[in-house]
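Fresh eyes needed here. I'd like your take on this protein's tokenised backbone:
***
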Amino acid sequence: MNVVDIIHEAIASKRTRFAFELLPPLKGDGMQKIFAAIEPLMPFDPAYINITFHREGIKETVREDGSVDWHIARRRPGTVGISAAIQHRYGVEVVPHLICGGLSKYDIEDTLIDMDFLGLHNVLALRGDKSQNERRFMPHPQGHAHAIDLVRQIADMNRGKFIDGEVEECHHSKFSIGVAGYPEVHFEARDLTSDIAHLKAKVDAGAGYVVTQMFFDNRCFFDFVRRCREAGITVPIIPGLKPISTLRHLEVLPETFSVKLPEALVREAQAHPDHVREVGIEWTIAQSRELMQAGIPVLHYYTMSRTTNIQQIVKALF
């Protein structure tokens, strides 16, 4: 079943479900840490699991003569492989992320074909971040500059159209395409109105649902949904939630993800520095309950592959 169908099934049954997001293992790690993060959550019947896709990095190696060799290295490869392994092992739908950054259109096409062969029929289409050695995002010379172009390529494959043209009597893929939305505005966007216009363009190009960036004030999400509906975006919009777990998150999350933390959450965390994890769990439970009462079909939890706090949250809610 694809994610769009799962979401609409939840809407029809008036039952909120949850999904969660994991990172692929670091290069050299096996899959046991990933499985250990997933297994405690399976009794609560997750709707689907997302697996992130990570850009290449630049690694510096100093030679014996003192000169420097720079080469491309990927710290977390294996998004497609780990997605297929999880789906096969647990029988739950898995959504690999796919990005524009660092990939040509031909790389993307090959990846999509592999996914289709492996029975992975859901994908979250993202532009991705700039590389660590770039001042701003630079697309691959034969790649895409924007997520909408990636959405179009995936939608074209579903219609049997490949980069070099249509294939006669071809097997058509059936990818369910998700895209990202930003309740507090993408940091590169001019304003929320233009950001929502770009989001609508991605939906018009073939995206079937939206997953939001994390937010910590539900009023921000509800206002975003209202403005999206007014702009003509009718697809499901899934809220992204992340419990804070350390005092460092009070600085890192706003800086990294361009989000605002409510003063009440910051005060509570600072007042209980030895119990920030518990503060984050309780805040996210309260957020989740309000969203569930509003009839949101799926809640998407960001985990960074550590799910003990998510386990406590879903145990309280589901």
